[in-house]
Amino acid sequence: MSDCLFCKILNGDIPSTKVFEDEKIYVFKDIHPKADVHLLVIPRVHIARLDETGPEHADLLAHMMLSLPQIAKAQGLDDGFRSIINTGPGGGQEVDHLHIHILGGSSLPGFK
Ligand code: 5GP
Ligand code: ZN
Predict the structure, then answer these.
(1) Alpha-carbon distance 9 to 19, whole Å?
(2) What is the C-alpha radius of gyration for the chain, rounded to an integer number of angstroms?
(3) How far is the CA of 49 from the centre of ligand 2 (A)?
(4) Residues lining ligand 1, CB < 6 A?
(5) Which of 7, 39, 41, 82 is deepest in the core (most CB within 10 A)?
């Protein structure tokens, strides 16, 4: 999608700090970190929201989920991490390209 912020990051039009990438996903640092470590895991294909996924995305979604522990460990999060998916305005989603937040480190805020 041409006007999607994260698609622009994917194709290099907007700079980002890459942490990991493979054939299906790209991982970069959040520009406004909410914790010592705050990463965004995005698919290379444009999918706007989690509630727009279906069975055809099962392999991709599994790949994203299964990649989280190794990405977190590579960032030094040996004690664990928090992962968040905001979906739609009701979930506080601001960028309409599916993403999983990885948060961790000593400054991780409480979550209620
Ligand atoms: P959401 O609220 O949609 O779940 O999360 C979007 C996230 O994208 C926010 O945490 C925000 O800080 C981050 N973000 C927004 N614009 C940019 C950007 O241009 N570069 C990077 N690296 N992160 C961004
Ligand atoms: Zn996109």
Answers:
(1) 13
(2) 14
(3) 10
(4) 5, 14, 16, 28-32, 40, 86, 92-95
(5) 39
- Residue corresponding to tokens 């299906």: 24
Residue type, 98: L
Q: Return d(Cα 48, Cα 95) in angstroms, integer.
A: 8
Give 108's DSSP letter. P
Structural tokens at position 91: 């979930």
Q: Answer yes or no: 99 catalytic.
A: yes
Of 32, 38, 63, 99, the catalytic one is 99
Give me the tens of pLDDT residue by residue for the chain, a chain 112 residues long.
679 999 999 999 999 999 999 999 999 999 999 999 999 999 999 999 999 999 999 999 999 999 999 999 999 999 999 999 999 999 999 999 999 999 999 878 776 5
Domains, the chain, ordered by start? 5-104 (3.30.428.10)
